[in-house]
Amino acid sequence: MAGCIFFSALLAHGATPVTAVAFSPDGKLLATPGRKQLLLWDAATGKLTRKIGPLPGTVRAIAFAPDGKSLALALGVPGRSGTLSLIELSTGQIANLEKTEDEMLAVAFSPNGKLLATGGANQIVEVWRVADRQLAATLKTHAGWISGVAFSPDGKVLASSSLDQRVKIWDTADWTEKLELPQNPNGAVNGVAFSPEGDLLAFAVGGAEERALRTWRAQNAFEELDPARRNVRLQTRALDTGTCVPLAVTFLATPPAGQSRLLAACSDRNVRIMARGGGLQATLTGAGDWVYAVAGSPDGKLVAGASGDGSVRSE
Fold this sequence. Notes:
Blueprint: E1 9-12, E2 22-23, E3 29-33, E4 38-42, E5 48-52, E6 58-64, E7 70-77, E8 81-88, E9 94-100, E10 104-109, E11 115-120, E12 125-129, E13 134-139, E14 146-151, E15 157-162, E16 167-171, E17 176-181, E18 188-194, E19 200-206, E20 211-217, H1 227-233, E21 237-240, E22 246-252, E23 261-266, E24 271-274, E25 280-284, E26 291-296, E27 303-307, E28 311-314
Antiparallel strand pairs: 1-28, 2-3, 3-4, 4-5, 6-7, 7-8, 8-9, 10-11, 11-12, 12-13, 14-15, 15-16, 16-17, 18-19, 19-20, 20-21, 22-23, 23-24, 24-25, 26-27, 27-28
């Protein structure tokens, strides 16, 4: 794991648990929540460079736009309110696109930056057009909190995960639900992510009987949907995470070439780095509480984890 060291620099946030973290597309900035603020750090030095706020709640998810000029926040107050906010970094201007009666928990930009998907405790996935800040789609077939949303690198697919133990696959051309990955009776799905290569979808399963990352071969996602082939297309593979209940999942690029790897944020206060086909490559330690979110820098050299001890740690 040369060049990828976890928890060597501490970004203190106080006693409030930190549940979101994201690198900018150029890898220079690390974004984390503050107390109703967004905090921007120099990723190389760990120095706080900027605060943006006030915000109407606690930040639960962060996504940078592909061009790095703006970012989106899913935030809220449990049981009271939720907000989807869009921030222009040049000015610090905050636009609130959506208000709900409970927390927003997930947010993702499309690869071209034109769409913004979000979801939360209202069990609905909504897709917004960034240019005119209007709804493009409202997707209502989940039966539990939305824990994650992710666009495929080619923008043709949106995946959504939920505490209803399902992952749904949507066609972004017409927003129809094309596939539902098999219901896993052993645990909620805590997050979802596409590999940078676009060939693999990963989701985190955390339950009493199963604690694992599951992967699905996402190439040609909407082909072979006739009844004779449908069960084949729905097959997923479990990657055992041991004592870790995975609370979030993402991918880590491999510099300068080679296949990406999986990152799992874990309830055992660690982060697992795993090969795409399974197998533990490293366990990254140092957090004082559950690790709720994890992010890898675009060049694959840094890993940052957000912890319940009120800290974010990164090299």
